Amino acid sequence: MRELIVDGGERLRDGAGALDVVEDIVAAMEKSGLYVAGRGSAPNTAGYVELDASIMDGRTRAAGAVASIRDVVYPIRVARRVMEATPHVMLSGPGALTFARAEGFDVVEDPKSYYVLPAGVAASEVDDLAHGTVGAVALDQAGHLAAATSTGGTFGKLEGRVGDSPLIGAGTWADDDIAISCTGTGEHIIRAGGAISIACSVKAGARLDEAIDAMLVEVKRLGGDGGVIAITRSGEISMRYNSAGMKRAAIGADAMPRVATFAD
Hints:
Mean pLDDT: 94
Low-confidence stretches: none
Order of helices and strands: HHEEHEHHEEEEHHHEEEE
Number of strands: 11
Strand content: 15-25%
Distance between the termini: 16 Å
Number of helices: 8
Helix content: 25-40%
Strand order of the largest sheet: 3-2-1-5-4
Radius of gyration: 17 Å
Shape: globular
Number of domains: 1
Largest sheet: 5 strands, mixed
CATH architecture: 4-Layer Sandwich
Structural class: alpha+beta
CATH class: Alpha Beta
CATH topology: Glutamine Phosphoribosylpyrophosphate, subunit 1, domain 1
């Protein structure tokens, strides 16, 4: 994670666009198998892996997502192609896979050997509704913001289950002022208003940390937990959570990376 955030910071300082950086960072985490996304995803109750991802360009409000897609190496790259090559925001299930194949994306040929348990997850936990998500937010030199989110969903989920991660406004949001990616129990994040509720609170004058905490309090009240990473147009960064911990990393104009799992 430290290497990813340092590389992303260097690219942004060299003029790379926020959208490209968040896509590439999330894709690297999908491929690594270290997180509950991409290769580190567990099968649903029907015995196969379904993946969700979304991406949003704050400058144009363009967005793309895939939900319940099977056996693609980089769900986030497919989501971006949905954004750029179709009139739609989301494709799901078999249709999403058909689209990915037609567009030439890498697919998983042998799922049984490809997928692995992510770091810190035991085989005994696969049938529990444990959860995990990867996400990235960025502000580039031109002042543009972008956000991306990807997940394998909750362990032990029902076939066809979709959480907040592929839902624009729930798990992912970016506009001219803020970029947000959420993680946690997706059903509760959706019901609590998710990313868009944070963006609206900030636009109405709330401090960034307070807006995030208010959404997470509602998630907790509803019976779930979660975490949020966000960055504003002014460069303010927030990484808040109400679970036991959240793997997170950030880098700002000072080029000093911050990496943590539990409380600082």
